Design the sequence.
């Protein structure tokens, strides 16, 4: 190195290796797309799995693996595969599991893009897709025709906060020879661990609570339980990622892992604040309905809500008397809560499903599912409870 021309030195100086008997306490950012081998034999050993090692960051990367390991532990999974977004994660599951002539049964109330993806992707690949009311277990059972390989739902549904009865849905799926995939974005593994309740696959949009700071796009797929060939399915999902290419960057994996560190305290606070806001909204004469899993013991999904541990989460929605105009008036009056069509961050935000996340649905479909023009979704933040509640009660008093 010493005798090299500076132009060559520029390409080589500053080695990646930093020998040290002490180790970094925090996982470093491995911003390396490539890895270097000392011999053909060594490369052969890594390629065939005889030695642990990395080849190319589209296949695997140490920072991404550190993040995967954390989600794995939280969900109690056999393995986890991270991707560049929640949609990429869902895409990999559909790609790995469903072939021409096979079928998927999915909840009719889903994150808007997930529903569009299932509809479009299925049509394109010749996969039969059917949507069902996930709370109607007899109806779900009836939809499990031969050829159904996947039952898909959200643990807490968007935007009506219905809680899925995962143990019952898992038995229905398994009796029909299918797998159950659960999008656990709203509950997070702090409030629900679907694999422990019988599900086979758990998907996260880590863009939301897992990262929790509105500065990263990321997704994960975890596989576990004893009803699925977990190593085989994980291999297929990794293969999908390698070929489709939606990899998580090492920087974003590092940030998301940093977000995970405070997930426990954030979820506790989100849940406490959301409960307080749900109670306050219920008492308002401008509000005709409040959807929050912890609120109404008579509601059928409240029974399933007992599956949620340590709180009912930070998401709620409510129906405003006066439709779109009243919602617009409220948005203009709120000062702490911003209109941001996403969720799961530290700050309180609101969204209007009919004109944002669920806008691609027809008017008929929206009405049938209860997504009216007066429906407001709130992602309750970790601010001081009283500041959140009074922001809403004051805004409501002005419309
Ligand atoms: C946001 C979201 C997704 C999609 O995730 P991205 O990270 O935006 O791709 C999927 N499911 C749910 C429930 C979501 O909230």
Sequence:
């Amino acid at each position: 190195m010493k005798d090299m021309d500076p132009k060559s030195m520029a390409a080589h100086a500053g080695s990646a290796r930093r020998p040290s008997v002490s180790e970094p306490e925090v996982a470093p950012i491995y911003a390396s797309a490539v890895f270097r081998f000392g011999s053909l034999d060594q490369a052969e050993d890594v390629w065939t799995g005889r030695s642990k090692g990395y080849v190319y960051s589209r296949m695997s990367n140490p920072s991404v693996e550190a993040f995967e390991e954390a989600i794995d532990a939280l969900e109690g999974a056999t393995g986890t595969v991270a991707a560049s977004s929640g949609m990429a994660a869902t895409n990999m599951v559909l790609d790995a599991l469903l072939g021409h002539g096979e079928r998927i049964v999915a909840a009719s109330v889903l994150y808007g893009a997930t529903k569009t993806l299932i509809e479009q992707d299925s049509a394109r690949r010749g996969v039969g897709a059917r949507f069902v009311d996930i709370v109607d277990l007899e109806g779900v059972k009836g939809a499990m025709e031969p050829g159904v390989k996947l039952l898909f739902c959200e643990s807490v549904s968007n935007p009506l906060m219905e809680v899925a009865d995962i143990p019952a849905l898992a038995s229905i799926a398994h009796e029909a020879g299918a797998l159950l995939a659960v999008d656990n974005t709203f509950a997070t593994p702090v409030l629900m661990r679907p694999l422990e309740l019988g599900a086979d696959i758990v998907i996260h949009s880590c863009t939301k609570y897992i990262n929790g700071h509105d500065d990263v796009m990321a997704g994960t797929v975890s596989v576990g339980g004893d009803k699925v060939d977990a190593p085989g399915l994980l291999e297929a999902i990794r293969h999908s990622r390698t070929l489709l290419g939606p990899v998580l960057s090492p920087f974003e994996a590092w940030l998301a892992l940093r977000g995970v560190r405070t997930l426990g305290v954030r979820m506790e606070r989100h849940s406490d604040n959301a409960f307080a806001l749900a109670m306050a909204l219920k008492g308002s004469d401008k509000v005709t309905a409040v959807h929050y899993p912890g609120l109404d013991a008579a509601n059928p999904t409240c029974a399933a809500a007992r599956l949620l541990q340590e709180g009912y989460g930070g998401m709620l929605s409510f129906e405003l008397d006066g439709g779109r105009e009243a919602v617009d008036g409220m948005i203009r009056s709120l000062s702490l809560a911003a209109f941001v069509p996403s969720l799961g961050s530290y700050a309180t935000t609101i969204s209007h499903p009919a004109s944002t996340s669920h806008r691609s649905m027809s008017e008929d479909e929206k009405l049938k599912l209860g997504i009216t023009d007066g429906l407001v979704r709130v992602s309750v933040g970790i601010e001081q409870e009283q500041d959140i509640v009074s922001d809403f009660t004051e805004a409501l008093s002005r419309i």
Observations:
- The radius of gyration is 23 Å.
- The first strand starts at residue 79 and ends at 83.
- The mean pLDDT is 94.
- The chain is about 40% helix and 15% strand.
